[in-house]
Amino acid sequence: MASYGNRFWKKTPFLKLLIPLMLGIIVQWHLQLYANTWLIILAVGITGLCSFFFIPVLTRFHLSTFSGISTGTTFLSFGALLVIQNDIRNNGQWLGAVYKDKDAIIATLDEPPVEKTKSNKANASVSFLIREGKINPAEGKIIIYFKKDSAGQQFSYGSQVIFKKSLQEIKNSGNPGGFDYKRYSLFQGITHQVFLKPGEFEIIPGKKENWLKKLIFTSREKVLTILRQNISGEKELGLAEALLIGYKDDLDQSLVQSYTNTGVVHIIAISGLHLGLIYWLLVQLLKPLRRNRKTRWLSPVLIIAGLWSFSLLAGAQPSVLRSALMFSCIVLGESFTRKTTIYNTMAVSAFILLCYNPFWLWDVGFQLSYAAVLSIIIFMRPIYNWFNIKNKILDFVWKLNAVTLAAQILTIPLGIYHFHQFPTSFILTNFLAVPLSSIILFGEILLCIVSLIPAVAALAGKILTSLIWLMNTYVERIELIPFSLWDGLQLSITQAILLLFFTAGISYWLMERSTNGLKIGIVSLLLFTAERTVSFIAAEKQQKIIVYNVPQKKAIDFIDGRNYLFIGDSGLLANDFARNFHLKPSRVLYRIKGADTLNDFLGYKNYISYKKRYILLLDETISFTPQVNKPIIDLVVISKNPKLYIAKLAGSLDIKQVVFDGSVPAWKTKYWKKDCDSLRIPWHDVSIKGAFVMNLN
Question: What is the dotted CATH code of the domain comprising 95-209?
């Protein structure tokens, strides 16, 4: 075991640098220490490393542990400094630090506007602020929503606009278990947003363009034109666009959900699967070059060029660039040395990517890509060897399924942690969808090549339309199979890590017959079981009231143990997207399911008694008579737009807490809040502070 471990670390030197780099990134993000602190730690680490050049070789061997500590310290601090450098909030000219409400803003569109239901949306970079006639430089990215009108067609990539409307800081909904959109945007440098109507902005003559970005957008538009001319059917066209270049604006949302529920959503997202197919195709096409010594060097050059060309064509999205770099490192590793291992090559690519953007460490695509590739490297061959199939076609089909099975082993814990579900039918779906999507991808590339010949392009388009229809239909039918999706799963980050350790330990034991691997697996499983048991016991005892932040809707959950009773707008329950986005994450987090009634729950019109708490729900105008002995109301939830005065309400009731839900107009809460403050009644506005959670035990 020890000798194997030593050999592994010798062959993967970059892994010893990557681990402390990742730890430094995580520590700095959570602790937010000053840069000077990390500079001192970096200096100590570098000093320790440099000191090794002045001591005898034999002494260096005895002090190898100290050398490892110095290396780890150096790259730990380096990772932390990367976070500080890439956090836009640490920039002295950051928009959030220098902007004032009355400033005029000059911004440049970073992309062509995307059409939404009521607006055109585009990311933009702020370059200047105009204050009292003076132009001041500023840095930062914002999201601009242009209200739909005829002038909307004037916008394109590089367009510059000037406006004076106040920016709004990007915030989370604040609902329990909800997606951290604020952090997601911050990791992209985006911190504010604004909605502009006609007359609230002006377009500045001239454009501010980057030639490479312009080339990418122009190429994408040409490819989209080819696909739209030759592929019919809305679902088929939307999937074709997503599959080839990652364009998702035309995707049917119900179809995306079907692909997600059956475990093949990776087909839609341009990622390692697509780059792997392109890599395989290029390797097959360039085999003749590798046979000749004089042209052997040309093969890796052309493969890397092909990978990056496809990545740029696909919009140079982070997930594509990550995969392109990973495969480029693999190509270079195979070309220049045979001493390294694939693990070291992957560590190199991850190290480079995190140096470029340390926040990719939190990116789901980054995590799943490396987990999937590692899983395939480790488990594909042992799984493939389960069966010895002599028929070449059946053997090829089994090999594809072996790859699919192998990829799932390390990605399952991460998938459950992020998406709270596990598609039990993934084997059935991948059996047809993976090879079929590969054929479709190559077919789309061929379609672009023959697009100059209309008759051939039309024929290729009809064939592709039929193949995509077949794949979509197959996926949708698989989704209808009972129990094809295990939904509502909740894993904490600790439980996900323990599952990964369990998988790694047991796998190492099975493949290397290592008792240490077995011990790691068993201990991880016991710890996982213990923590999960504790979380379930806590869920059985919980008693809560949650007033959700849902725009223009009333939504309240009363929770008793593992059950909840919902009171709110019925239209919210009929809207799958709104329900899944605003309510479902909380219910998954607390492990609760719907019930018709709860213990100790009594309700009459607007009045509710629950667990010795008294709640008043006000969504309509009600008259209250002043009383000397005022009844206690633990919680008043105000919804919609009732005509009421807090002072009169307080004259009739002894109010302990007021909550304004997401359906209350902002202008009206402004006055009610003032009344609450004057009467010293605590208030909570879910639109600003996020969901209100009252723990009853």
Answer: 2.40.50
286: left (phi over 0), alpha (psi -120 to 50) or beta: alpha
**pLDDT, tens digit, for every residue of 99-146?**
998 899 999 999 888 887 778 899 999 999 998 889 999 999 999 999
| Amino acid, res. 692 | F
The one-letter amino acid at 77: S
pTM: 0.84
The CA distances from residue 126 to 115, 136, 193, 424, 541, in Å, are 21, 11, 11, 46, 50
Residues 156-182 pLDDT 10s: 888 899 999 999 999 998 999 998 999
Question: Could you write out the DSSP letters of every residue in 141-204?
Answer: EEEEEEEPSGGGGG--TTEEEEE-SPPEE------TT---HHHHHHTTTEEEEEEE-TTSEEEE
Locate the domains of the chain by residue range: 2-86, 95-209, 493-540, 543-695
Nearest to 82 by CA among 41, 26, 40, 138: 26
Contact 554, 641 (CB under 8 A): no
Dist. CA 57–CA 513, nearest whole Å: 37
- The angle formed by the CA atoms of residues 305, 307 and 310, to the nearest 5 degrees, is 105
**pLDDT tens digits, 478-521:** 988 888 888 888 889 999 999 989 988 888 787 777 788 889 99
Distance from the Cα of residue 74 to its chain's centroid: 30
